[in-house]
Design goal:
The complex is a heterodimer of chains A (343) and B (317).
Chain A: E1 13-22, E2 25-35, E3 38-43, H1 50-57, E4 65-70, E5 73-75, H2 79-82, E6 86-89, H3 101-111, H4 116-129, H5 145-157, E7 163-167, H6 175-190, E8 195-199, H7 203-209, E9 212-217, E10 220-226, H8 227-231, E11 237-244, H9 246-255, E12 260-264, E13 267-271, H10 278-288, E14 291-297, H11 302-311, H12 323-342
Parallel strand pairs in A: 3-8, 3-9, 6-7, 7-8
Antiparallel strand pairs in A: 1-2, 1-4, 4-5, 9-10, 11-13, 11-14, 12-13
Helix pairs in contact in A: 3-4, 3-5, 4-5, 9-10, 11-12
Chain B: H1 21-34, H2 37-45, H3 50-63, H4 67-80, H5 84-92, H6 98-125, H7 127-135, H8 139-143, H9 149-182, H10 187-192, H11 195-220, H12 224-246, H13 248-252, H14 260-263, H15 268-279, H16 290-316
Helix pairs in contact in B: 1-9, 3-4, 3-6, 3-9, 4-5, 6-9, 6-11, 6-12, 6-15, 7-11, 7-12, 9-11, 11-12, 11-15, 11-16, 15-16
The chains are: A alpha/beta (343), B mainly alpha (317).
Chain lengths: 343, 317
């Protein structure tokens, strides 16, 4: 299921047949991608090649073969120049002990070529944007995990890169900080037209900010499509949340010969119906004495899509190999989502 | 809720040339080591040996007019420096020996106090220089910018080289300038013009191998104390080995361990001293320094390669 993610805009990252092996282990196996402006989620199970792809993009890892261009710069020939146009937030903690937060961001700016005083001015500016207050004058080794994530985000932005690569940016953030970070990502993409590649395991984050998704499994691109097209279900259906008399309603619907399945607590999926059929559904609800909280067209679930992509991949070694695993993982994600909503 | 929130703003401006970016690594490294009080104290103390060196220049200039000073200096050259040939030529025509005497004073300055200060200074500052970056993964911050592993290592090495320049090169050049300033006539410039260049070359010959070795040790581990231990062990073991091999008892017992110049290869301190002596032109046979030069060059190259592979290897994980 590969397609050019942004058919209307020129791609900002274009890769052809990228291969990389570590000894006998293949990390990237003929990866071809076109990524345009906006936020693109890079998904995949552990060991699927996400980090290798990111490091290859930045020229930190030499690929065995492949070509392309990143922000109009030849890749991998001129990978070093690419790093001038990229802001990279690594997954791991990375800081220099003994420096204050603001000095760390200033250093990142200076390494990107900003003059000393300008780097300091800009450091304060982006730290304000990242909601880092007076803590900026504390030594970075005293920072909490959440503060370090914010600091890394500020370092990523200090030289105002057109391409931003974020590797698990919400790790260690509390729900409020996470919401704030995701909003900042949205602002950067929408108002400042940044191209953002977001590598994460947290599917709600992807749903929250991403315009498109790339799923890597075993070093191959399994899915590359816009989130909108992925959300479109393969067959029509309606999704309803029922408050009362759920069983009666299910019975009433089934009498009409319509397949009805439970997809969550108080949530039902009515197969084959379109929004035009909503009047009929209201009628059945009235007859069954059921009350609805919500009714909406069915959407394909991103987590299901992710599980399918992983399970169906040739040589799947992720441990996701049957329906029950898939459901467990889906439940886990649903729980995470509901926790987030509650918080 | 902030009263005024400017939010994100674009940035436009000139960027420095990429070749200058390793200097940012150096500046940050210097800023961090400079915060250590002990380092500032050692740097201050490192200038003290310049006083006896300056006195040596004064004594030489004094000897041109005083027979008793001349005799004292000749004795020092003969017994202290073990150079009766220089002592004889000095007594023959003291003014012609200026270049050689000044070179020997500068060599003594480099060889004894400054080399030992360098060992202590690097032993305290260098182990943290890469190992801390490995421990806190700060290399990701560096290499996500347009910086290569070589440039990173050059930036780190420049921190150590700067420390060495501050403790050895600048004091030596200052002493030389004082000597020129207080010498009775301009002929001293004609006789000693080559000494500043020798000081620079001697500094480089001391700085490059030691900085490379210190960085290689530092890159081996994320625990800086192990790097410190390895650094001091290298010098101490070298001294002990050299002392053992050259002790008169062993020599008397007929232990065949080669000529004395080759014994110096067992000790990094003495091997570097041999090279510096050749640079200052005080070695009776300059070719005696060739084995030491080859050894130090090999150690330098191997250290650089080790440091490169250790740092570059982190990116493959």
């Amino acid at each position: 299921m590969s397609e050019q993610i942004k058919s209307t805009a020129s791609p900002h990252i274009e890769l052809h047949d990228v291969r990389k092996s570590y000894g006998r282990r293949v990390a990237l196996d003929g990866v071809s991608l076109n990524i345009g402006p906006g936020v693109t989620g890079l998904l995949g199970p552990n060991g699927s090649g996400k980090s290798t792809l990111i490091k290859s993009l930045m020229g930190l890892v030499h690929t065995d073969s492949g070509s392309g261009n990143v922000m109009g710069i030849d890749w991998p020939k001129d990978a070093r120049s690419i790093r001038d146009s990229v802001g990279y937030l690594p997954e791991d903690d990375c800081y220099i002990s003994g420096l204050q937060g603001v000095e760390s961001v200033q250093l990142a700016g200076r390494l990107s070529g900003l003059e000393r005083s300008e780097a300091l001015r800009r450091a304060h500016e982006v730290m304000d944007f990242c909601d880092i207050g007076q803590e900026r004058y504390r030594h970075v080794e005293t920072y909490s995990t959440g503060m370090r994530q914010k600091l890394k985000f500020a370092q990523t932005l200090v030289h105002d890169p057109p391409l931003i690569i974020l590797d698990e940016p919400t790790t260690g953030l509390d729900p409020g900080q996470r919401e704030g970070l995701l909003n900042r990502i949205k602002i950067l993409a929408k108002d400042f037209h940044k191209t953002i590649l977001l590598s994460t395991h947290i599917l709600p984050d992807v749903r929250h900010v991403c315009d498109s998704v790339v799923i890597l499994v075993n070093g191959k691109v399994r899915v590359a499509a816009s989130l909108e097209s992925l959300s479109r279900p393969s067959k029509p259906g309606l999704r309803v949340s029922v408050n009362a008399n759920k069983l009666e309603f299910i019975e009433r619907v089934r009498r009409e010969g319509i397949a009805c399945s439970e997809i969550g607590r108080d949530e039902l999926q009515l197969e084959g119906l379109t929004p035009e059929d909503s009047q009929r559904v209201w009628g059945w609800a009235y007859e069954a004495g059921a009350a609805f909280r919500k009714m909406e067209p069915s959407r394909a679930s991103l987590d299901q899509l992710f599980m399918d992509a992983v399970r169906d991949a040739p040589g799947n070694q992720t441990g996701i190999n049957n329906e029950s695993d898939s459901l467990d993982a889906s439940n886990l994600i649903s729980n995470m989502e509901s926790n987030r909503a509650n918080s | 809720m902030p009263i005024l929130d400017l939010g994100y703003r674009n940035w436009e401006g000139d960027r420095s040339h990429r070749l200058l970016r390793p200097l940012v690594v150096t500046a940050t490294g210097m800023r961090l080591v400079w915060r250590a009080t002990w380092l500032r104290r050692i740097l201050l103390c490192a200038w003290l040996p310049a006083i006896p060196a300056g006195f040596g220049f004064f004594a030489y200039e004094q000897s041109l007019q005083s027979e008793s000073w001349r005799q004292t200096i000749a004795n020092i050259l003969e017994n202290g420096f073990e150079r009766p040939d220089v002592a004889a030529s000095f007594l023959e025509d003291p003014s012609l020996a200026r270049g050689q005497i000044w070179a020997m004073i500068l060599l003594a300055f480099f060889r004894y106090p400054q080399a030992i200060i360098m060992v202590v200074l690097f032993g305290l500052a260098a182990p943290k220089i890469v190992s801390y970056d490995l421990r806190s993964r700060a290399y990701l911050l560096y290499f996500s910018r347009p910086l290569t592993v070589v440039e990173y290592l050059v930036g780190k090495a420049l921190v150590l080289i700067t420390l060495l320049v501050l403790t050895s090169t600048i004091p030596a050049l200052a002493v030389y300038c004082l000597g020129i300033g207080f010498s009775p006539d301009a002929s001293s410039i004609a006789q000693t013009w080559h000494l500043p260049f020798r000081v620079l070359i001697a500094s480089a010959s001391l700085a490059l191998p030691t900085a490379s070795l210190a960085i290689a040790y530092s890159s081996f581990t994320s625990e800086s104390r192990y790097a410190s231990f390895a650094w001091f062990a290298t010098w101490v073991l070298g001294w002990v080995t050299y002392g053992t091999l050259t002790s008169s008892e062993l020599m008397r017992n007929g232990v065949t361990i080669g000529a004395s110049h080759n014994i110096k290869l067992a000790s990094p301190y003495h091997a570097l001293g041999e090279i510096q002596a050749a640079i200052f032109g005080t070695l009776a046979e300059p070719s005696d320094a060739i084995p030491a030069t080859i050894l130090v060059t090999v150690v330098t190259i191997v250290s650089m390669m080790v440091a490169y592979h250790r740092v570059a290897g982190q990116l493959r994980i």
